[in-house]
Amino acid sequence: MVRAMPQTRHSEKVHSHAASRLELKPGAKLSENLAVFKQFLKVEEARVRMAHEAGGGGREVAQERAQMVDVLLRYIYKAADAHYRQTAGGDTPTLALIAHGGYGRGELCPHSDLDIMFLHDSSPRTGKTHPYVAAVVEQVLYMLWDVGLKVGHATRTIAEAVAFANQDMQSKTALIEARLLIGEKELFEKFQRTLVKECVRGHADEYIAARMDDQRSRHEKHGDSVYMQEPNVKNGCGGLRDFQNLTWMAFFKYGVLKPGELKQQGFLEAAEQRQLEQAYDFLLRVRNELHYQTGRPCDVIRLGMQPAMATEMGYRQHDMLRRTEAFMRDYYTHARNIFLITNVSAERMAIRAPRFGKLGELFNRHTHKKPVPFDGFVMHDGTIHAVTPSVFKEDPHRLLRVFHHAQQRGVELSPELRNQIRNHLHLVDRSFQHATETRDTFLALLQRKGQVGQCLRVMHEVGLLGKYLPEFGKLTCLVQHEFFHRYTTDEHTLQVVEHLDKTLDATKPPHANYTKIFQQLEHPHVLYLAILLHDVGKAANVPRHAEASLEAAHRVAARLRLSEDETAQLLFLVHDHVKLAMLSQRRDLDDQATIEATVRIVKNDVNLDALLLLTFADSVGTSVKFWTDWKEALLWELYHRTKQTLTGTERAADRLSRRIEQLYKQVSAQLKAHLPLEEIYSHFELMPASYYINTNADEIAGHLALIHRFIERQLNVEKPEDALAPVVEWQPFPAQGYTQVSICTWDRLGLFSKICGAFASAELNVLGAHIYTRGDQVVLDVFDVCDKNLEAVSDARAMQNAEKLLEHSLTGSEEMDFHQLLSKLRAARGVIPVIRVSTIPTVIAFDNEISPTRTIVEIQTEDRLGLLYALTKTMSDLGLDISFAKIATEKGAAINSYYVQDQDGHKITDEARLAHIRATLENAIELLAS
């Protein structure tokens, strides 16, 4: 277990430097030489950093830093030992200074802690530590702290160390790689023998089970995928810990602790050992760079850090985006190698059992124990093996067919078979891609609902999917620079397929909400193929990736010889895969024009059903965390209304008329004892038809009561400005995390902006808004708001403060200076130190197609205090009247849509004016950020 450190030129330089600077005078106190030790550390840390910046490997640099700390520790230890012997004298117990953990492996990243243990054999009857041990420990630790090192430490006897190791799996792990720094070698070797005897032998099964549980929870915590947009180099899938985990488990089961030893035991092939060690070295270099960039022990490659890291690590592409992509592609490639090779090795060592599908378990339970060959393969112990090494040379089409066999039986391919496929990918040439046999096999794979994802994932892992579909292959390890995405493009695509699979027999929402539609879908292969191709255009690095994806889909449809109908549906799904999400989340669903636009896009029920499934799977495949009940409700509303309209516009209009009639009867019955019937009838006549689509009878009754209070107040106003005072109603929804605020007042230009300014000044966040203007110019605005803690507003004082600001802003003779108020609020909050995950770009777009009477202004930018006010105030100053707004805030991004008209009630179509509006809004956002 002792790891010998390589004697490099660096080691010689460190020892030479130490010999000339760190030899202390006899009897001198360590504290008298603090400046000398600090200077030594400063020079050597700089030397290690220079080695890193010169392109030093990850292990090389981490080992050089460990060597440097080794030398420093030995001098400090010897000085502490000498000082005690010269000043106190007497017999001393045996003592050894031991490194463990990562430092014990001889790897110390720039800002990593060093873990040390003082091992002694003194066991005084008094129960107190021997003065010699106490003195040396104290002096060594204080000196290490004073020179600026972070130290984890313990002082133990062998018995105490063994007891500590047997506490849990992590404690065992920390000590199995212990390394002697200085002190009694015999004591250390006795400790090693005892550790193996008492803590390793006979504990393999429990240790491996604990390590596997730890790995599962660690992967889940950090995204459960190698291909995270912001991967954790140490603890994520395919991270450094996966490599270390394998060696630790191998040591407990087979007594080997290095990849070379695993190869000798037959658990690693030579190529795998090279890939594994290269990958580990690369990831360790990335971690070193992370530490240097952040000045602290950081393990996550944040999106905003990736360009600088790519440059510092020697990537020289002229375009910064290409440079970053090249760096991250290398990272994902190496992390994938660690993940796949360690899993395969674990299977070979019988540490990790193959994952059995349900069908595979059933198949094995009811078949003969004797393996039965089929098509050049044989199934044994739940995995498929090749009968001969030449199985693919004999028939190259088996490369794809074997996955169909595995899918049908619900089992996995053996590690050896996966390697054979990798080694025969050269057989996948143009004739293979165009062959009828492979085409039929591939489409058959895509026909098996609920069983496609795992099959495609393994095909991708061995490199076959990208070879057979080169359009998809270009996405391999392609980082996405969109802040909503958590994964690389290829991983996102596979996640989408797996989420679609999950809907087939799901029993819990949200997936179960789509089960019936998926079960009734007749041609799932087109939908699965559309998912595979929907983002392939991103590899082309063009502004509109959907167009590039469409071109690729054309080529694939022709190569697979899809029918005319299948091709049409494939092209539709690829080209319009974001339309349902965009329309449902950013457009006015109360506007029939939105529904009619959706009908024009989908054309028929079959396309609508397929697009609904793709929209859901794509959304949760981007991030389950950000798929909310609100988004789902909007999607289903758009789906149902589009479905109704597809049956005929007249029938849809009839249904709405019947709904309004039914609502009028319910509201009249509810309020006839409280309000005159003519007032109720007048409300139903004056409100737009869209109001009744999403509003139920109880809500309408509440709105009528609010409007009645407002009208009654008009009869008693003493001053003209009092007529403008709003009537406000608050209804908290704590479980949903927002409070609904209903406001009734007279319509006027800039009203929405003033309300937003008042809410912002009251430190309330607007999550959503519905704006309704009656025919008599009475306005009913309904806002969903939350406080700065993202909770429902329930505090009476907060409500009163907001109402005062609302009344002052809507009735005051002078315009309220919200800009000044918000500036003071920002100053009072102070600067909140955060590491920016990514810069959210400002994008402003206009849509004059959806609505026949209004221009849609869509704004995406970074969310900040007062943004909504700044945007709406700017639009008001530009003479734009906002009739509808859709507000959404996610992951620090604000994505808002506003339906506007000019002061004459017209759309804005003049290109010069649209350009002026965009420039003015961009300037307002920039001023807010400054």
What do these coordinates show?
The protein has 930 residues and is α+β, with helices and mostly antiparallel strands. It has 5 domains: 9-201, Beta Polymerase, domain 2, CATH 3.30.460; 219-348, Four Helix Bundle (Hemerythrin (Met), subunit A) (Up-down Bundle), CATH 1.20.120; 354-468, Hydrophobic Seed Protein; 475-647, no CATH class; 717-929, no CATH class. The strands form 4 sheets. Strands 13, 14, 15, 16 and 17 form a 5-stranded antiparallel beta sheet that branches. A 4-stranded mixed beta sheet has the order 3-2-1-4, sandwiched between helices. The longest helix has 30 residues, at 58-87.
Counted up, domains total: 5
Main beta sheet: 5 strands, antiparallel
Proportion of beta-strand residues: 5-15%
Poorly predicted segments = 1-7, 355-368, 831-838
Give the structural class.
alpha+beta
**How large is the radius of gyration?**
34 Å
Percentage of residues assigned to helices: 55-70%
3D shape: globular
* Oligomerization state: single chain
The number of E-state strands comes to 17
Number of helices: 40
pLDDT averaged residue by residue: 86
- What is the end-to-end distance? 57 Å
Question: What keyword list fits this structure?
Answer:
930 residues; alpha+beta; Beta Polymerase, domain 2; Four Helix Bundle (Hemerythrin (Met), subunit A); Hydrophobic Seed Protein; 5 domains; five-stranded antiparallel sheet; four-stranded mixed sheet; 40 helices; globular; disordered N terminus
